[in-house]
Amino acid sequence: MTPVAAPEHQPPCAEVKAAVEPPRAEVKAAVELYLALHRAPELSGAEHATADLLADRLTALGLTVHRGLAATPSFLAELRNGPGPTVLIRTELDALPVTEATGLPYASTVPGAMHACGHDLHAAAALGAATRLTATRADWRGRLLVLGQSAEETLTGARALADDGLYDRFGRPDAILAQHAAPLPAGTVAHATGGPLMAGSRTLDAVLHGRGGHAATPHLAVDPLLMAASAVLRLHTLTARESAPAEGAVLTVGTLHAGTRPNVIPDRATLSLSLRAFTEPALDQLHEAVRRVLAAESEAAAAPHPPELVLTARSPVLAPDPALTAALRTVHAEHLGADRVLAAAPSPATEDLSHLTALPDGTRVPLAYWMLGTTPAATWRAAAAEGRTVPANHAPDFAPDLRQALPTGITALTAAARHLLAAGPPIVGAVPHRSEATP
């Protein structure tokens, strides 16, 4: 893809800035949505009220909303505004099974659930951008799509939409825009510098089979808990001793369950694992090594049955389009200030949006994906002075600076969309313009 150039007849910079910077009333509406979502988080696949809340707000703006996509809470909102490119803004809907410990007055009221990854912030920013673009529709042409995606945290939501034929129903976008909360200074955004931004991943479930028995007669049993404990230690050596450091591979055993009482040796132990790396061959190698380790531990313990290993989810490496990223980095510098546009290092975090960029014919929908800083300035300064880290995503004390992060997120999305939707030629990219597509 070649860089996207602004049309020659685009309004002067001052007018464009005025068009994308959200007025106080629009920010207030986005804040209200954020607070409502943060107080009532819903886990992956069950985001029905979350989806309805955001979809209702978009409907009130005049967008046409298609709900219940792929038999999930996912929805697509559409605003047609004459001939031109199609730009899709994606936001996630799901929260995490984390108990909130922020002490905020608007903390989660749902036991054991929290928006610990910023998806409520993403949704509020998407609403804010849609509001701004709706209010300034005289200044741009094309089709705006807002996708509310279910089940990102389980890495199954985007794949479900792709498999269900999202683009067959609604047409392929010419570009996808997305952003993600990150422990960077609030008020900043950070773009990839040309390579991958996030790792690819695989999620595995494993079962180690033993032979149950009495705690007083362990010699008559085969203890799967001992097998699992040994396997966990061995598995965590794989990235250190079998993966090249440059691969950036990460293996985490996230759960281990076995047994019901201290005087009973169980007959099985279950584990769940997350594998991450920046190339598919590295993931293949790690996956095979996990299988080998589990099989060896089972054989060493004389297990009655071989282990089971099931792939439950996967996500491709997330690599934003270099040319589109370069163009939007310049756009963000113009609207936010160059000092607020940072470089993002590749992260072993993972995300499933790449399932919606890969097309069956081998081409890709150009993707712009940037990180959105959320850490309050005071927290950032204190952590730097004390040599410690700041609260990050998935932590129970993760608390974005709403006053800084939300307006920045709205402006970043709006400016990017306006740059692509401004009256002029279609976006040059891997995907032909399909504004004629009809649901």
Please provide a written account of the structure.
The chain is α/β, with parallel strands linked by helices and 439 residues long. Helices cover 34% and strands 21% of the residues. It has twelve helices and 14 strands. The strands form three sheets. An eight-stranded mixed beta sheet has the order 1-2-4-3-5-14-6-13. A hairpin with an 8-residue loop joins strand 1 and strand 2. It is elongated, with a radius of gyration of 24 Å. The chain starts with 12 loop residues before the first helix and ends in an 18-residue tail after the last helix.
Protein traits:
single chain, 439 residues, alpha/beta, 8-stranded mixed beta sheet, 4-stranded antiparallel beta sheet, 12 helices, disordered N terminus
Low-pLDDT stretches are 1-13, 429-439
This entry's quaternary arrangement is single chain
How far apart the termini lie comes to 27 Å
- Work out the helix count: 12
**Global shape:** elongated
The average pLDDT score comes to 92
| Rg measurement, Å | 24 Å
Largest sheet: 8 strands, mixed
The helix/strand order is HHHEEEHEHHEEEEHHEEEHEHEEHH
How many beta-strand segments? Answer: 14
Structural class: alpha/beta
Strand content: 15-25%
Helix content range of the residues, please?
Answer: 25-40%
